[in-house]
Amino acid sequence: DNENPNIRRAFVFCLYTGLRWCDVKELTYANFDLPNRLLRYEQDKTKGHSSSSRVTVPLCDEAIALVGDGGKNEVVFPLPSHTMCLKALRRWTKRAGIDKHITWHCARHSFGTNMAATAAREGLSIRVVQELMGHSSLRYTERYTREVDEQKRAAISSLSRAMNQAKEGGQR
């Protein structure tokens, strides 16, 4: 209640696309090719000094539903200041009982980690993730594969603990 719905829409859109806050706040309907389910934009952070600053992201149904309709030059997500968006995010995490410090950039990192995991699972090249995120070098993208590796180790450790607990329970 009493929350700006555009903040939520924009944050969830970033989870589906990997956009930074500075990029999502500037999107207009002209950035979208909805018949072909594509988003095309130039990254604010690397504009003018990277050949990878122009990014094309295919859109899933959920991301398209967040876009809505508007005039070609109309901003898709009319957002308040970065500070106000962060305050909203902190209220959400507090209400959800999440103690971790979550920032807007966590949506981009979540996207990168999810895409790296999908690439590994599906046998896709990590270069796909690199292009989706607009990284100029694989070096930046590889950090997401390390996060996936850490998650795999944690999952195996969890499985091992569960098996040991089951074995101990069966011996009693």
Q: How does this structure look, described?
A:
By secondary structure, the chain is mainly alpha-helical. Helix content is 57%, strand content 7%. It contains 7 helices and 3 strands; from the N terminus they run H-H-E-E-E-H-H-H-H-H. It has helices at residues 5-17, 21-24, 61-67, 82-95, 105-122, 126-133, 138-171; strands at 32-33, 38-42, 54-58. The protein has a 3-stranded antiparallel sheet with strand order 1-2-3. Strand 1 and strand 2 (38-42) form a beta hairpin. Helix 1 packs parallel to helix 5 (105-122).
Structural class: mainly alpha
Q: Distance between termini?
A: 51 Å
Counted beta strands: 3
Would you identify the regions where 5 or more consecutive residues have pLDDT less than 50?
Answer: none
Largest sheet: 3 strands, antiparallel
Q: Note the total helix count.
A: 7
User: What fraction of residues sit in β-strands?
Assistant: 5-15%
Mean pLDDT: 85
Strand order of the largest sheet: 1-2-3
Run of helices and strands = HHEEEHHHHH
Question: What helical percentage do the residues reach?
Answer: 55-70%
Q: What is the approximate shape?
A: globular
